[in-house]
């Protein structure tokens, strides 16, 4: 039975990392489930409380990066909160239609269009759209790094 749990833990942790670049797969939540499952399977002894708290915080932080990375970037590029909210909605809808490309293009196109309508300045609009696009792509990289570190830490806990 323990071997099945270990396999499930490793599968959840690996799926978490893969889920960061797979549309509609909650990578951070899968990694969190792997950490908690292992902690439960050891009778709440491993990992220790400090490491457990750190890994849970990293997983929850990754979830925030996933949800708000593009919006923060668009805001940093000068887009209004209204534009960011509408662009996030359009990006999510296009994610279902065209996958990750739909998300990125929907976000960037919506930010550009709404900001151009608001300012009638192609340069400002392109800047905001560029920031949003880079933020979405950078958030994916950050998520891979964060959940990859959770995977490595847990593999060390499990196999050492």
UniProtKB/TrEMBL annotation:
Parts of the chain that traverse the membrane: 49-72, 84-108, 128-159
Keywords recorded for this protein, A-Z: Membrane, Transmembrane, Transmembrane helix
Pfam families: DUF456 (PF04306)
Domain of life: Archaea
UniProt keyword annotation of Methyltransferase present: no
Signal sequence residues: none
Xref: InterPro entries: DUF456
Keyword Disulfide bond listed: no
Descriptive protein name: DUF456 domain-containing protein
Originating species: Halospeciosus flavus
